[in-house]
């Protein structure tokens, strides 16, 4: 796989902060342009569904589990809410953090109310946290629900967030999810491609989208290619989705990167629902494909290393 390692510095990044932006971008991508984002924002998005219950490691009930994984595994960045970074970050100062600036629960269905998620966090809060703690905050994240009747509110907020992040030399990562009564199928490849293009228009450096669904016999990775093209210079990563086997996930990721030419993954449940040791090995296997260009079999070997011990 040939990786385009050029970094397109957004025009609004001030000259004095270009080196900061380049440093942050290279930190999260290890200079490859590809990203393994450890997504730890589900304590709001999915409440406790992802953290407690059958098949979930008991350690996952405590938020510290997320930080333990992020501090020990090979990842590009760890995305979670401001409050968790504030509460735990000083114990884990080496983690590259992405502040997730908005989140909402899954309790209110679209049939009851159109989706909207406003920012809880502003850049004054982030600036103050960085000055007080010296934590390594490399970027910000924000979810946009494309197709909601409230989409214009989120577009305005997302655009301003990308601008303010870039002014500080931070990277902007947008979760771009088609959702609302006007959306016939949230995982339709054409609609996902449209959402990826909206993310580019909003100024995102990376967009996180759901892996599209296709009719039986169709190739999901080939369908994803439309979204990669629509994103242009904004790089596209796929959400990991529900917990699955290590090999199945690694094969899916390999297809996304080598067939669709996506630039990585954003994994949450597939990482943190495992024990600490297994989660670290799984991150390292993902990293082997995303950053080191390994095959699926080689990545599986990374995951299984130490398993027998």
What does this structure look like?
With 309 residues, the chain is α/β, with parallel strands linked by helices. It has one domain (18-304): TIM Barrel, CATH 3.20.20. The protein has twelve helices and eight strands. Helix 6 links the parallel strand 4 and strand 5. Helix 8 crosses helix 9, helix 9 runs parallel beside helix 11 (276-290) and helix 9 (246-258) runs antiparallel to helix 12. The chain is globular, with a radius of gyration of 18 Å. The two termini are 33 Å apart. The model has no long low-confidence stretch (mean pLDDT 96).
Compact summary:
The chain is of the alpha/beta class. The chain contains 12 helices and 8 strands. Helices cover 41% and strands 15% of the residues.
Which key features would you list for this structure?
309 residues, alpha/beta, TIM Barrel, eight-stranded parallel barrel, globular
In CATH, the topology is named TIM Barrel
Q: Gap between N and C termini, in Å?
A: 33 Å
Q: Specify the biggest β-sheet.
A: 8 strands, parallel, barrel
Low-confidence stretches: none
Number of helices: 12
Strand content: 5-15%
- Helix and strand string, N-terminal first? HEHHEHEHEHEHEHEHEHHH
CATH class: Alpha Beta
Radius of gyration: 18 Å
How many separate structural domains?
1
Helix content: 40-55%
CATH superfamily: Aldolase class I
Number of strands: 8
**Mean of pLDDT:** 96
* Coarse structural class: alpha/beta
Q: What form results from the Cα inertia axes? A: globular
The CATH architecture classification is Alpha-Beta Barrel
**Neighbour order of strands in the largest sheet:** 1-2-3-4-5-6-7-8
